[in-house]
Design brief:
The chain is α/β, with parallel strands linked by helices. The chain contains 10 helices and 8 strands.
């Protein structure tokens, strides 16, 4: 958020003016800004706010920046695909072709020899034996499932795909014909142990947070395994035009600290959790 403060009108206005003249003028104004590391990191935002594209193509503004970068880093490949000349001209030609052919174009042609030359190392070979990954694989094979924390005896799959879930672009809850509240699925054995049945409410808690959800008892679930659907926890206007939230946003229960140590992906499918029965509210 602090970096966005660099995008004042003094930075953006000259780009908007250049965009009105045309892409070549815009490219000349845009390129010098990329020498500033802070602004270069905000290139997608700058392009979206200043590049003069038709409304239906505005989301593709970042592609112009990618064209410029590709023209600077892979001019030979780009020229072989028919986009030769100085880098800026090649980038403009490539971007123009993409705008005219939104279904796709071939913008790079490489030989295997060229690909090999880009590999690191004196032997120019792909290194498949990575010591740290082999060490991790050995550990997982030896101990595939570490013991659960007694305080969190369940494993939560946060973000299960179901027949009526979607990505968060779809917010209107009325389109879902099944599971309107995004119930927590649990096994019959766990339901019996907790003394709950379909529609009863439980509190699911993780190290990150907690939420109250209805229960869906499913024989497809193994004891100790629970699941919440993806795509919920979003606000949508109700009949009184008030923002009503349906279901639970899985990210509210997951933590970035519990993640794969190599790529940083959170362990959404194995979140330690606990369950507590919630007494029905008196009507």
């Amino acid at each position: 958020m602090e970096a966005l403060g660099a995008l004042d009108e003094r930075t953006l206005a000259p780009l908007r003016e250049a965009a009105q003249v045309g892409l070549p003028a815009y490219a000349q104004a845009f390129a010098p800004l990329m020498a500033d590391p802070q602004l270069a990191g905000l290139a997608p935002v700058i392009l979206y706010r200043t590049l003069n594209l038709p409304e239906e193509l505005r989301e593709g503004a970042i592609v112009f920046g990618l064209c410029v970068r590709f023209a600077l880093t892979s001019p030979v490949s780009l020229a072989r695909a028919g986009f030769g000349g100085p880098p800026l001209e090649a980038a403009l030609a490539l971007f123009d072709a993409i705008l005219k052919h939104p279904s796709g174009i071939v913008f790079a042609v490489d030989t295997w020899g060229e690909r090999r030359r880009e590999l690191a190392g004196s032997e120019r070979k792909l290194q498949l034996a990575l010591p740290d990954l082999l060490e991790e694989l050995t550990r997982v094979l030896r101990d595939p499932l570490p013991p659960l924390d007694p305080a969190f005896p369940f494993l939560l799959s946060a973000g299960e795909r179901r027949s009526f879930t979607a990505n968060t672009i779809i917010r209107d809850p009325s389109w879902r014909k099944k599971d309107p509240e995004g119930a927590l699925r649990i096994s019959p054995q766990d339901a019996a142990a907790l003394g709950v049945g379909p529609g009863d409410r439980v509190r699911v808690s993780t190290r990150r947070g907690s939420a109250v959800v209805p229960v869906d008892v499913s024989d497809r679930m193994q004891p100790g395994h629970i699941a919440l659907p993806n795509g919920l926890g979003l606000a949508y206007p109700d009949a009184n035009e008030s923002a009503a939230v349906t279901g639970i946003a899985p990210n509210e229960l997951t933590s970035v600290e519990d993640c794969d140590r190599f790529v940083g992906t959170p362990w959404h499918k194995t979140v330690p959790a606990r369950l507590e029965r919630v007494a029905p509210t008196a009507s």
